[in-house]
Amino acid sequence: MNWSELYWHRITPLHLLLWPASLIYIIFQTIRRYLYRRAALTAVKITIPVIVLDSITANNTEKLPALIWVINLLKSSGLRPAIIGRGYPDNYHQPMAVTNASNAKLAGDEPLLLANMLHQTCPIWIGYNRIEVAKALLQAHPECNVLICNDGLQDLRLHRDTEIIVVNTSHVNFGNGLIMPAGPLRDRLARLKDADAVVTAGGRQQAPDVGKRVRIFQLDLQEQKYVNLMRPVLTISASELNDQRIHVMASEANAQYFVDSLRFLKAALTVQTFASGHKFTQKDFQPTNIQMILMPWEDAVKCMGINDSRIWYPWQESLIEPGLREVILQKLREKFMDPKLLDILVCPLCKGPLIYRKDNQELICKPDRLAYPIRDGIPVMLEEEARSIPPEEDIK
Ligand SMILES: [Zn+2]
């Protein structure tokens, strides 16, 4: 257990002192939600659909694998997703894009990991104000047609079309069961009843009470893999590390848990720790006879600027019950029924406007002479799926 888990699993005099703050926080949130529901406060609507995917507790390790599952689902359906969010709790900066070249301090660990794993197939923007972030992203990437906000469960200023909440049921009754700042819960568990879907991880026995309307989908973590930092499409399994000589590099904050997690490997490990907050440079990665360097992902993502193909980090992909796919796509279908939304979609190639042909269920780019199909209510904005329009066919 690290310090935050210890803190959230106990009730000490400090927790009792913080408890009134939790109470005020939850009363404030409940009133706000009531006002938004009664339309006394209006949420800002972004032109394209917004999916909020967040966890009910802080420190939920399954949220990121769930997010990647959802992104892959959207992409395989022909959509062009983008990720927005604050990125990390104390981010007070203007909207910025997170890429492999981003400054680690400004970008935050999780957005950097996403930038590495999704490898420029899905823009990621972060900043203090999620609405500004969404607007800035869409200006830079008009081809994106669905936004995923991977935090902001409580940020009701941003209108959401779908809300998915990730819950880890194995968090022994959600730590000490208290709401932030005294406990790990972001809201009362009754909040789950307002979601469109709940994703649970960590055991089927203790399903949370989500009411009759909301469906629960189980997330299962897959076998641990190791991802190459320079080429994230390259992965290896733990058994492939047998009998290898591996150099482990980690900052002090992550070293203990990381080395513990590698105990099962049948490999010869050497361990090198760095002060927390250490700025990794090329110098830390001198050429030696070591073939493989293993780092916790939180440290590895800070080394994206270092061109060293020996750096790997562990990752567990997730598999979510397929019913969630239908829940998400059905919500999006309802949104894309609106011709106004189809009107603002642009061609992913030339970023120019498209002509909507209702009869053929196609979106046409005149300059590229391409017809993008609308399949089962979802616009498939992929060049390889588009029909190329023969010269004899008139485009009106
Ligand atoms: Zn075009």
From TrEMBL:
The gene is lpxK. The chain crosses the membrane at residues 6-28. Keywords: ATP-binding, Kinase, Lipid A biosynthesis, Lipid biosynthesis, Lipid metabolism, Membrane, Nucleotide-binding, Transferase, Transmembrane, Transmembrane helix. Belongs to the UPF0434 family. Signal peptide: none annotated. PANTHER family: TETRAACYLDISACCHARIDE 4'-KINASE, TETRAACYLDISACCHARIDE 4'-KINASE, MITOCHONDRIAL-RELATED. InterPro entries: LpxK (IPR003758), Trm112-like (IPR005651). One of its GO terms (biological process) is lipopolysaccharide core region biosynthetic process. The lineage of its organism: Bacteria, Pseudomonadati, Pseudomonadota, Betaproteobacteria, Nitrosomonadales. NCBIfam families: lpxK (TIGR00682). Coiled coil: none annotated. This is Multifunctional fusion protein. SUPFAM superfamilies: Trm112p-like (SSF158997).
